[in-house]
Amino acid sequence: MKHRVVVTGVGVICPLGHSSGEFFDRLVAGECGLGTHPDPAILRQVGVVRGDLAPHFTPLQLLDLDRVSQLSLLAAKQAVEMAGLQGPLGESAGVFFGTGAGGIQSMEQAYASFFGQLGGEQKLLTVLAAMPHAPASQVALRYGVKGECQTYSSACSSSTVAIGEAFRRIRDGELRFALAGGGESMLTPGVLHSWSSLRVLCDEPPQAPGTGCRPFSADRSGFALGEGAAFVVLESLAEVRARGAYAIAEITGYGVSNDASHISRPNPLGQVLAMRRALAMGRTKPHEVGYINANGTGTQAGDLTETNAIKMVFGDHAHQLAVSSTKSGHGHLIGAAGAVEFVASLMALTRQVVPPTANWTSRDAGCDLDYVPRIGRPVEGLSHIMCNSFAFGGNNAVLVAKAIEP
Predict the structure, then answer these.
(1) For the chain, which residues score pLDDT lower than 70?
(2) What per-residue confidence (pLDDT) applies to 18?
(3) Mapping DSSP to helix (H, G, I), strand (E, B) and coil, where does residue 148 land?
(4) Residue 124: its pLDDT value, please?
């Protein structure tokens, strides 16, 4: 027996806000969370989570918490509280987490200390703070999760895969509850230098710094890196009804594929396969989907490839869809991107407002869909959404969700 899987809680902390409400309000207003990093060594515009996180943790906790773990714990807390769950969750619950670089800040600090001091004293718990699995482990410890604790790292699709795999566990009856999402905090001088070498980071207009990320726009030049975390709580619909909880939306499909063609150049056929698999799993017809939260990184090749893939899957309906990339507002959160964007998509369903592609300026001949330019748009009758995550390495992951039927 396959169970229907619903979302009962969401949590997000990112450059646009410290809660799902603040995040979505600023997102649909077309605000941009990109700006100057407090570290003067980082010269590029990036998406920084503003405010001091330290007051949320004890001094002892901060010893073994990289910033990515701090962000992840805060997002998970919001989701668990919204779902109305009480820990410990025990053997019937699992944590599923996606990240691209894990605790890279702690590791870079350790390298800087080592090379700068020629082997001087290191932070005692660097290994425990920096390991990619640390955020998932910290969330599992916080909520007494004993059923399963998994970390996925497939670049920009990591947290979408994490949510999809959690969906499978609930659907198949292996778990009652799942905390699923992702976190990323890689805004360090060394990481930014590495990304700059790839030539995928956007150019910033001198007259409007922070607005250089312009997915699907003719003048797009790449993306800006961001940091943050997002979590969702998944349960079966039967479980939710039994405990009298509120269901936000139902996940109906999850599709994955692999291009097997190039390490960094996207292939539309792989993207098409993932989208079709997600639709087929939930028996969703293409015309039922009203909004796609696109991968939309703002690169010339990537946005054109995704546009063509959408057209291949949706045919004539592609031009009736609202398609937007919210990376233009919060930056590219790499491993956490899918989770943050899935939360945005769920809120579009519940509020019946589709978020915009901020900073969009001009139409590209090849990118000719409705990209919801600059400001969010109220819609009526939005019943199904799709969320795309397409990663370096050719890994593709897609989620489809629908509104809860009365």
Answers:
(1) 117-124, 406
(2) 98
(3) strand
(4) 65
Residue 134: burial class (beta carbons within 10 Å; 0-12, 13-18, 19+): buried
Pairing of strands 93-98, 177-184: parallel
Q: Residue 221 has which token pair?
A: 């030049």
Nearest Cα residue to 327 out of 223, 400, 233:
223
Residue 283: both structure tokens together: 């028996």
Query: Looking at this protein, which amino acid is placed at residue 215?
Result: P
- pLDDT for 291-302, tens place per residue? 999 999 999 999
Question: Which phi and psi (to 5°) does residue 268 adopt?
Answer: -60, -30
307 vs 255: CA distance, rounded Å: 18
List all residues 6 or more positions away from 52 whose beta carbon is below 8 Å from its beta carbon.
Answer: none
Q: 């999760």: which residue's tokens?
A: 145
Domains 5-243 and 255-402 share a fold: yes
- Report the top-level CATH class of 255-402: alpha beta
Q: How many residues does this entry show for the chain?
A: 406
Euclidean distance between CA atoms 317 and 216, whole angstroms: 18
Query: In 38-130, at which residue ranges do the beta strands (DSSP E only) sit?
Result: 46-47, 93-98
CB 240 within 8 A of CB 8: yes
Helix-then-strand count for the chain, H and E: 13, 14
Q: Which fold has domain 5-243?
A: Peroxisomal Thiolase; Chain A, domain 1 (3.40.47)
- Reported as type and span, the H/E element at residue 21 is helix 20-28
Residue that is written with structure tokens 């992951």 in the block: 397
CA dihedral 135, 137, 88, 341 (to 10 degrees): 40
Residue 201 near residue 223 (C-beta atoms within 8 A): yes
Domain ranges of the chain: 5-243, 255-402
349-361 pLDDT, tens per residue? 999 999 999 999 9
Cα angle 287-280-335, degrees, rounded to a multiple of 5? 95
Q: What pLDDT is stored for residue 117 in this prediction? A: 56
For residues 23 and 9, give the distance between their C-alpha atoms in angstroms, rounded to a whole number: 15
Find where tokens 């150049």 sit: 265
Question: What does DSSP say about strands 249-258 and 395-402: parallel, antiparallel, or unpaired?
Answer: antiparallel
- Name the token pair of 134: 């640390």
Helix or strand run (H / E) with residue 62 = helix 59-63
Q: Kind of pairing, strands 5-13 and 249-258? A: antiparallel
CA distance 150 to 173: 17
